[in-house]
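Friendly challenge for the regulars: who can give me the structure tokens for this chain first? No prize, just bragging rights.
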Amino acid sequence: MADLFAGFDPVDPPSPTPPDAHAPLADRLRPRALGEVIGQRHLLGPDAPLTMMIRSRRLSSFVLWGPPGVGKTTIARLIAAEAGYTFVQLSAVSTGIAELRRTLATARDLRAAGRSTVAFIDELHRFSRPVQDALLPAVEDGTIVLIGATTENPSFSLVAALLSRAKVFTLERLSAAELETVVQRAEAQEGRTLPLGDDARAALLAMADGDARYLLGLVETLLLVEGDAPLDVAALAAIVQKRAPLYDRGQEEHFNLLSCFHKSLRGSDADAALYWAARMVRGGEDAGVIFRRLCCAASEDVGMADPQALVQVMTAWQAFERIGMPEGRLFLAQAINYVATAPKSNASYVAFDRASALARDTGSLPPPKHILNAPTKLMKELGYHQGYRYDHDYPDAFAAQDFFPAEAGDDHRFYEPNERGYEREIRKRLAFWDAARTRRDDDA
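First reply, four minutes later:
Bragging rights claimed.
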């Protein structure tokens, strides 16, 4: 049977033998059974979906989606072991389609010998579409049970055919309490308490940002500190470097934070909008992306309730481009505060949607001839421009003419300004013009 394992390293159920004492702390503390996994109770609790799958000893393909350091690889390995499956680990970063096909061929041989195989593929989203497609037949016919791990939204990163054949389970960032449990296990493993004061210990957990693997790296560094005097936050910061925020400008987190930012603006919460913008800036986001979203909010959500909002944003954007950072954050903050605190109206946005619906329903109706220009004699003879009334020749510069095609019907009111901000004045103006049209109809 040994020749069947060429091309990959199948793993049997975990042995109770302690790991190498010289291995990294994260490896030495790796859970040896699912009951030891910290967090993810929504997936691993008594009646949770993964627990029920293990209990039946019949695994189906699934994808573990979550941030780094929350146990995706460990959970996959332990599930395979406790369900009695052979475990094969591949990395989408280094595995090509040729190696994948060799692995699948070996899995078919194992299946013929009565053994089921879990193929765990880390960073599954990094597989190209052709490689993902190559997995499909083996998943469909049961040659392998696919367990994928990804930090990217599977809806965006996996081909639809593969996604339809695998459930998606979302793993959560570890809470501060769960990270504290990780630290306590490390201290028990090493027989030493970390030399940290209460505030520094809390700061250490915050630095980990929900990532147990990163946290254990920090713990290893602190275990090298000589002496038992507790460190304060400043001393801790001098020893360990704060991690860069998790933010990928080209992936889902980019769109998530933009969505949080825009909804905070719409909800008139300047503080939250500033926070999400700061998160993006710290993550390396292009300020132009943030200003573009501000422009959208200034028009979509503020609109005519404060027409100056768009002007303010564009002016701040120009100032930012001329001055640059770090002073540019002043213009960004001012624009954010203006849009967030401005009166809100989406009446213009809704009005265009209504107009678009009528345009779609009425097709190519000819415009009324009285509002068409007549630059030629023939066009004048055909009635072009005949009956047009020049508004400036009338009181209040309003002639009360119709501008819709006759076949489109009457009484089309798309724009309905509200009573907030400048639109309150616009409502009065529209009411005045409506009254003038009514007088026109009565006189006709």
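The chain is about 50% helix and 5% strand. The mean pLDDT is 83. Your move, everyone else.
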